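Give me structure tokens for this 287-residue protein.
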Amino acid sequence: MTKAHGGKSVKVMDGFSLATRRVEALRQRAGAVRTRLKRAPRMALVAFGDELGRALHVARKLKAAAAADVDAKPLILPPRATTKDALRAVAALADDPRVDGIFLQFPFPSGIDGDTLAAALPASKDIDVMSPALAAQYLTDESALPPVTVSAALALVDDYDVRISGRKGVVVAEDSSFARMFRLAFARRGAETMRILSPDAPDLQDRVKRADLVIVAAGRPAIVRSEHLTKGTVVIDAGYFNPGGQGDVDVAGGTRHLDAIAPVPGSIGPMTISCLIERTIVFAERR
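Here you go.
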């Protein structure tokens, strides 16, 4: 999708549209797995529920999986579940030969040790590259798979033919294996510098101004303002779990000066789900 502003068009990367166009191809691949394995590709989705047993962000994944003929099995842990409870659940899924992939749904309750839980994921079923082993592999092996959110961003820039090579980039996020993989993915596409920039950096906006590829994955609503983005910049908002669904990039100041933007909502979110479904199929295809 493009939006014209006085003769200039801004590429608005529509994740809903791309995800919809991908469904039929995913169904065909899932059907081939079903024929060979006598069952559909299967993803176990581990999440923590509220007092009513509801878990955020799960329903859309189940709907997308069903549309692509992928069997998604939610395991909703109670809100007072401990890290040990979650580890036992992951261990049981790891031992289940019918499960092709395991996905840990954020957010985790405050008492859950997310690092320990991620480390317990077996590499053979870690479809979102959360385990230290797969994260380390991606940092050294260009053929390794990245996290599905990174795959979603790459799929969007490819589909919308957004130029990445030669751009000076920053990733606004806490320094983590996820941020480092996001940085590296775009550096491998030819982006220059691609530094990780702490959301708490005192000169955040000034450093954002000096970039023309800005990826924001801080989980902090409106931490980057559109008026602080340089003309011709490519912006990828990977903000997540924000109150009211607000993105990390505040676009109230307008986007007409940008080359392309993946906004929240409607871009990275639906494509991350599509890539998660695809990743489940990929793991099933390896069997």
